[in-house]
Structures are given as structure tokens and as C-alpha cells.
Amino acid sequence: VLEHAIGSADEGFPLVQGVRTTIDRTASLLATWHGSRDLYLPAPEVGKLFRNPALAATYRRIVEESSGGSREEEIERARSAFYEGFVAEEIGRFVAAEEGLLTVDDLAAWEATLEEPATLEYAGLTVCKTQPWGAGPVGLQQLALLRGYDLAELSEAELVHVVTECAKLAFADRDALYGDGAHVRLDILLSEEYASERRALIGEDASSEYRPGFGRLPRIHAGIEAGVGSGEPSRGTVHLDIADRYGNVISATPSGGWLQSSPVIPALGWPLGTRAQMFWLE
């Protein structure tokens, strides 16, 4: 699984213009993080092979520490090396030195879990999304709102208007009401009664108002009601939709990791994920 990543990191890959542009634009910041400085500065030339030997060494050590036994045993040992072994120890040391919040115990206590998806019935289909720790239910809320319209009868301009206004209402709820799943009332947010109340807000003109569905629903983020929104700009997202010939479809957004947003951990060769910039501690 890691062979190609190790090869790219060790032997290098041709640097694209976008990476060079980002390095040039943020060089003064990168210079303050010694791991990032050693990896990215001086800025490599576009088209030249860019190498990351520390990353290759990290992946090789994971392979070495997990080899032997069944596939399941190897995967579990690799997970242990990452979340409880040398990777976790390096992350813990680095974050502690930066006075951050992530600890070795946090990493050791986490493991992937299986959960039921959030679902909505629409046009004879069962649409599945993540629980509201992510933005997935926004799509379900939009569909719940759109169920009140005969989309086939709308003109092109009317269709764009209705879809856009439904999206505004659903994303306003995401900003204000999503978060820890234990406190988010998807039973209300995805109900026909709630969708009807929200749908009534859509008029013939485009709305510039910021209208989360407060009232019966608990606030997750204080201050959103004033219309400040999330306050975080989006600089672009990587997204994949994959379907096979048997009708299986997966939709994934493996985004984040901007090199200018998080310092490289020198011993490991990569930064912590940058999506934490979009979390709040309230």
C-alpha cells in the first residue's frame, strides 16, 4: 500500500507550478518553521524532482514494524506504530514544544469506528451522508427542502433560484447548528415539518440574509446569530466521486494539508492536518 508513496518521496516527483507559487508567496512564514524551511527552501525549480526523504523513512519504518503475519495483523501493527508508537511519540513531542493541544494519550485513545449514516428518502432513493460532525447532512437538508417543489416544471432560471436558496438555508444551519453529534437534532433538521417551515422563507427574490433555524434547535456556535458566519474562507477542495459497474458509488473529500498552513514535523516529513483551523473550542 505504501510502496508508491515511498517511491515518490524517496526518488522524487516533478514539482508543479502551483507548489512553487505557494512556496514563493509564503517563504517568509515557512522560514520560521525549521521543518518546513529545510524541506521547501530554497524553493525548488518547477519540473525538477522534489524529494522528501524524511517522509520516505517514516513510511519505511511503519512497513518494517508491521511486517509478518496475516494482512489483518500487519494492518493493526501499522496502526499501532502510528497511533501508539514512534509516529505518535514524535507528534507528541512536536506539539508539546509548540504548546499545542494534541497529546500522545489523545492519539492512543482514538480508533476508527463504524457508524450508521444519516439518510433521507428522495425520489425513490435512499441518500446517505455522514453524521453532523461533518457537513454531510447539508445535502440531505437541501433535498428535504427540494421535495416541496416540482423541479421538472420549473424554468431554468427558477430551478437555479430554488436550488440556490435551499442551499443558503441548509448551509446556514450547518454553520450554526452542526457539531458534536450528541447535541445535533437531525430528527428535527431532516423532518418534513422543519423543511416546510424553512421552505416558507424562500420567496421570488434572492435573499442576502443569513438565516439559521434557531428557536427549537440548540445553538452550537455562539455569535453566529449576528451573521458573522464561520469566518473561515475556503481556498479550494479536493473531491472524488467514484462509481463501479455494479452500481456502488462512493463520494469522498480527502482535502486539507496546505503546506503554508501547518509546520512540517522534521522527524516525520509531513505537517499535521490543517482542517483543525476550521474547528472551534466553544
Q: Helices, strands, pairings?
A:
Layout: H1 3-11, E1 13-14, H2 17-30, H3 34-40, E2 49-50, H4 53-66, H5 71-83, H6 86-97, H7 104-109, E3 118-122, E4 125-129, H8 137-146, H9 156-177, H10 186-189, H11 192-199, E5 240-243, E6 249-252, E7 264-265, E8 270-271
Antiparallel strand pairs: 1-2, 3-4, 5-6, 7-8
Report on this model:
Helix content is 42%, strand content 9%. It contains eleven helices and eight strands. It is mostly helical. It has helices spanning 3-11, 17-30, 34-40, 53-66, 71-83, 86-97, 104-109, 137-146, 156-177, 186-189, 192-199; strands at 13-14, 49-50, 118-122, 125-129, 240-243, 249-252, 264-265, 270-271. The protein is globular and about 60 Å long. Mean pLDDT is 88; it is low at 220-234. The two termini are 38 Å apart. β7 and β8 form a beta hairpin.
Radius of gyration: 23 Å
Which percent range fits the helix content? Answer: 40-55%
Q: Give the strand order of the largest sheet, numbering strands 1, 2, ... along the chain.
A: 1-2
Helix-strand category = mainly alpha
Show unreliable segments. 220-234
Number of helices: 11
